[in-house]
Structure formats: C-alpha cells, structure tokens
C-alpha cells in the first residue's frame, strides 16, 4: 500500500521524514522548471514507495518530458491504472525513443488485458499450464474476397506470401528459403489480425493465432519453452502461418530492457525464426502484427526473419463502404447512403466505423423505447454519430510521424510518410 506523502507541489504528508526527499522537494519548489531536479524527486518518491506523490510530481511538471512520463507509467502500473500508464508510456517513447522499456510496456499491456494477471500465483512451476499446446490450429474459410478494399496491400501479400506457399517447388528450384516472416503494422483497429487470417484462408494453409498470454509466464525459462513449443507445433502443421499479435511485447528492443529473462525470450524468438523454412516440409510463415514497430528489436529485420514490413492503413473508401454494410446488416434502417457515410469517415479505423454505427443505434433504440415502436436508423443518426466519434487513428499518426521522420532507417517507414503526405496529416 503506497504511503501518502508530500506531493510534487510541496504539500506535506506522512512520508516526508527522509532528508533526501525534503531537500529535493525544497529544490523543486525553488526551481520548479528544472526538469532534472524534478526527475530526481519523482524517482526518490517512487523508490520510497510513495508512488502517488511521485505521480503528482510528474503531473506538476512545466512541460512534457520523456523520462518523467516513464516514471508516471511505472507509478500508474503500481496504482492499477493500466490504461493511463500505457498512455504515458506511449507519449514518452514518442518524445524520446531511448526511454523505451519493452518490459514495462508488456507489464502494462498484460495487466490492462487481464488485471488478475498481476496476482497470478502458481505453487509449483511444474504445475503451470502449458498454454502453448492449447493454441488452436485453424483452417480459415475467409479469403481476400471478405477483405473490403486495400487492393494494393492484398497484392503485396499475394506476391510475398501466397506464391511461395502455393509454389514451393519454384522457390526450391532457385534455392530460395521457404517460410520466413512478415511484419504488419499500423493504427489499432484496422484489421491486421483479420488480414492475417484471410491470408491463411487464401493460401489454404493452417493458421495459429498467438497472443502474449499464450507465451509469457512468470517462471524463469517457461516463456522460452512455450515459444519453442509453438514453433514446433507450427512445423508439424506445415504448411502453416504462425501469427503473433502485439509482437512488440514478445520481441521488443533488448537494449531497452533491464531484465535478462526478457532478453533471453527475444533471443529464443530469433533462434526459432532462423530455424524455419529449411525444407519444403518446414514451410512456416511467421506473421506479426504491431501498433508500435519502433519498439520491435532491430534484429528481427534481418533477412529470413521479418524481412518484409507492410503498412496496414485505415480502411479506404471501398473498405469503409463494406464495413458500413456489414455493421448495418440486420438492423432496421431507412434511406441509408453508405457511400456518403464512407466519404464522411475518412481516416476512421474499422473499429471507429463500428463505433459510429453503435452510437447511432443507441440513439434510435432510445427513441424507439420512448415511442413504443421501432424507429429505424437513418442518415441523420449516422452522420451525427460520425461527428461525435473522432478517428482514433489520428493519435497514432501523430506518434508515427516522429519515427517516420527521424528514425526511418532503410526507408522502412516510407509508406507511412507517403500516407501522411497524401492525407495532409503532417
């Protein structure tokens, strides 16, 4: 339980007995714009266990500071405010890539997905469930026909994925290694997982979708064991696609991690990727998806690993039309022009479009309940909802623009820069 002490604005409390803390607080009061002193105070308060005071010290800063934001993310994790912690972490990395801490981000991501994960205890590591063996092997029925729009992206996947999987004999004849990896990145909610599943359906191969909870384990060495088991299972099911969602949580930058066990997990991931595709029977394609490609360890970009990196943009006009049709299906509607709705929702992710439909539905449902009869959805409902629901992709592009501009080694973010320029997001 954190102790309630003096906050960053100098209010006294129960944990102000430390001479170091007292001196730092006095110094910050005297020089409130000195970020170095403020960092020292926040770190000292965090170290003493007074995370609430440390958080207030950060929040009272005169301006944004990457290192202060990381401290805030750690404090919010301890306070159980995981979403806020992730927000602070992402802002910190956007300001200064050097502060990236893949382990911290992983902790926040896992805790937000399942708050109970912090309390998970196993009496004996040998009794821990081997989640890797429970990952389902699918034979997807969906194909690219179900993926509206994104024709250029689908053509790239055909060239880089489908042809090698369908004609391994040609690749073998030219001495080309089968399998390999493709990394898809872009704003959240734009269908990267759906696209990966459709790729497997288009190729007619088996598909294994892996989440971070299927790999990460609290016991030393278990995460690496689970990861290796997944690759072995994918080889047994070959030809197959092994898909990792939030791959940055499993393959983050080792230079940004202070924990040896995390570096060992990344090393295991790299070793398993190097071991695939040596024979025709070993045709495994590894697909990864991430919202933060800048957090992925650079070693994954070597040939034979995630050599191909594909930008998955927000759905285009054609795709938004199809999403609106899908989400409005089986709902009572009247005089709906989905093409006009799609035009009014440029830069909206698929999840944003769904949010628009649901927000409009709630209005129509409320009015139906008041009148006692069904009042169909109409254009006014949907256009009004579109004005209330802002595209969530804008924040992502704001972050991505910094990396695409200042950390574009080898032109890996050229597609993002082109998209930003085309849509005048810069």
Structure summary:
By secondary structure, the protein is an alpha/beta fold.
Q: What would you call the structural class?
A: alpha/beta
Question: Unreliable stretches, pLDDT < 50, 5 or more residues?
Answer: 1-17, 116-129
Assign an overall shape.
globular
By CATH, the architecture of the largest domain is named: 3-Layer(aba) Sandwich
Number of helices: 17
Helix content: 40-55%
Strand content: 5-15%
Q: What's the total count of β strands?
A: 6
* Oligomeric state: single chain
Spatial strand order of the main sheet: 1-3-4-5-2-6
Give the count of structural domains: 4
Q: Tell me the CATH topology of the largest domain.
A: Rossmann fold
Distance between the termini: 44 Å
Taking the sheet with the most strands, its summary is:
6 strands, mixed
Kindly describe this structure.
- The chain is built from 17 helices and six strands.
- With 426 residues, it is α/β, with parallel strands linked by helices.
- The chain has a six-stranded mixed β-sheet with strand order 1-3-4-5-2-6, with helices on both faces.
- Strand 4, helix 11 and strand 5 form a beta-alpha-beta unit.
- Helix 3 runs antiparallel to helix 4, helix 12 runs parallel beside helix 14 and helix 16 crosses helix 17.
- The N terminus is likely disordered.
Per-chain topology:
Layout: H1 19-30, H2 35-48, H3 51-59, H4 66-78, H5 82-95, H6 102-113, E1 137-138, H7 151-166, H8 168-173, E2 180-185, H9 192-203, E3 206-210, H10 222-236, E4 240-244, H11 260-274, E5 284-290, E6 308-311, H12 317-328, H13 338-343, H14 350-371, H15 379-388, H16 393-406, H17 414-422
Parallel strand pairs: 2-5, 2-6, 3-4, 4-5
Antiparallel strand pairs: 1-3
Helix pairs in contact: 1-2, 2-3, 2-4, 3-4, 4-5, 5-6, 5-16, 10-11, 12-14, 14-15, 16-17
